Amino acid sequence: MFDLDSLTETALDILRFDGEIGDTLAELRRHWGQSVPALLDTRLDHIVLQYRPFEHEIGVQALGQELSTLGWGLYDLDEEDEYLFVLICEAQKDDFEKQCRKAKYNFKRMKQRGRKWGQPAKTQNLHPVMPCQDVYFPDDAYYTIQEIAGNFASGIWIAKEDDQQGKFVADLRNSPLQPIRVQWKDFRELTYSQELDFYAAIYSSPYSDHVIGGKDPTRINDWPALTPRSMKKLGKLYWFCDRLCCGDEESLLFLTMNERGCENTQRFILSASDEECQLAADGQGRIFAQRHRRDSRLTCYENQDLNAYPFLRMKDYDALGNSIPIPGTSRLLMIKETWGEGDTKGNLFDLDMDNGHCQIVPLPGMGENLKIRHFTGDWVLIYNSSEDFRTDFAQLWSPKTNEILRIRSGMFGLQKPDHITALPDGQVVIITRHSQIGTVLHRPEDFWTFLRTANKPKKLGKWLRYSASYPNIPHTLPKSKGKSCQYKLSKLEEPVLKFKNLNFKLAVMNVLMYDKGLLKPRFDIWEFADEYSRRRIDPETEGYDQMIPEAANWFRRYPIPARLASEITRIDMDGGDEINCQLAPNWDGEDELFNIQAITPEELSQFPRLQRASIFTTQDRSVVPVFRQCGITVVSAYDVPFDIEDADADPQANAFNEKGQH
């Protein structure tokens, strides 16, 4: 007998919706690892790797399913907003379930739908891993990179044998990395000007902060001070052309720099504030300062003078410092979060600092808490600072081509990148952090080609313009006016093909729409989702184990002119067919989602020139004979003949064949 109340009290309590499957496995191991060695099996780590992009509940079900192959059942004793997990061994699970039912005790075994006890979890396709050369720090300490500037990184080192720790800098071009320990106290904010090939940073003395700088970070301990007077609690350092700028709790500092150092210093005293000052420059070289985080009035530095800027103020939690200029204009590119659809999303925001005109575009797959900065060339980097593996780590956007390149967490195995940057010569480096060894630097073998081949082609969405001027805009996305109606279906005034089985129709449409370009529009799930207004369709998170219903219904209703039937001479089904990718963009290809499980002679008779069909089906004894008796050679999609005798033919097909011979 089980003491159900005691089991509930000692159960592992985990949030149901906001968790990450890797953290859940870590908690299970911490709670029961010593008493249940099966939890340490590496198969569970593979499940984590495969299911991290999924919702937490889906990952938990996969974990429970895999545990059943190891002789353990994972049960939830709560049906509210949190899990109460208990582990029950295979020998006791039937008695446990029987006792729970008799006592009317809530329980649910974590398993995947359609899979029995002892069956492994469904395998998910992993994102390809980016080929890289890995570069390590020495093993005399744990090194963690915190900032990257130019060719150098800075961070913290912690000794392995004692309590010593400190800061370091390292040249990222070296192999292996050779950290230089920094003697400056509270060293931080390493930054770099590519125009001047000059570095700067901040250090603290007992009563003040100082800006230091130089050409060569390997001689960082000899760098001179750039500020003639001390300042208090300096914030972030910003480079704007030849200006090095920062603010403290009572002033703003503007240093005019050249390749040798500082040639002029200006300090403007402001009202005291305990909030960090944020700065940004537009494409005309004007520098704007945001003193307070919320509803902040701005000041503008122009022509070596600082004045109030009454035309604009920052709204809510929009961060002026999280922006880049649009060259040659009075505009900034920023990150702006909008509310709606039950959550908060980060968006790319284009703001004109002269008049407040603004437009916005969503960033699907990126979540919230986003950062933006220039990457290399004309590329803009938008990256995610959260630990959520279900979102992209970063996306690269080219304003010239509108191309989006996705950088996904799974591209680096179990680690999520801490940093990605391009050195001044264009070499891309990626930083990940490992619990046992600290920071590892990765140099991709062919960064750009890999991103283009590992992802489907993607463009930035449509910009949506606000009718009001900033900051008098809503917290939501503007309603799109004049949306395209290219996916509105009209009735044809000519004969159309008729289908009883959707998947056969999809196989035909893949040929006509994607292979031959004879059906318009060429269906794109992203465009369709943008046009669809009855609910928000998110192709990033939908279409894993079923077709997106609205897209499937669109194809079901699509009228195909009968005159195009003669274009179908061959059907070659493939798991990677474009139509499959549009209907179920995250499908792993493992189940029977697009199989032709039924077919009628009437459907096939519409295609007199169809000679050969390579199909997916598990109902070969009922499907294959219909093809054969309509005179169509049929093989499996793996190009293997079906082992079906003509005597096994479907009676319906036989009747149709006999009717056609009279």
What is the residue-averaged pLDDT?
A: 88
Taken as a percent bin, the fraction of beta residues is 25-35%
Gyration radius, rounded: 31 Å
| Biggest sheet layout | 5 strands, antiparallel
How is the quaternary structure best described? single chain
Main-sheet strand order equals 21-22-23-24-32
Structural class: alpha+beta
The general outline is: globular
The number of helical runs is 13
- Contiguous uncertain segments of 5+ residues: 647-662
Describe what you observe in this structure.
- The chain is α+β, with helices and mostly antiparallel strands and 662 residues long.
- Helices cover 19% and strands 29% of the residues.
- The chain has 13 helices and 35 strands.
- The strands form 9 sheets. A 5-stranded antiparallel β-sheet has the order 21-22-23-24-32, with no helix packed on it. It has a 4-stranded antiparallel β-sheet with strand order 1-3-2-4, sandwiched between helices. A 4-stranded antiparallel β-sheet has the order 5-31-30-29, with no helix packed on it.
- The longest helix has 14 residues, at 56-69.
- It is globular.
- It starts with a helix and ends with a helix.
- Mean pLDDT is 88; it is low at 647-662.
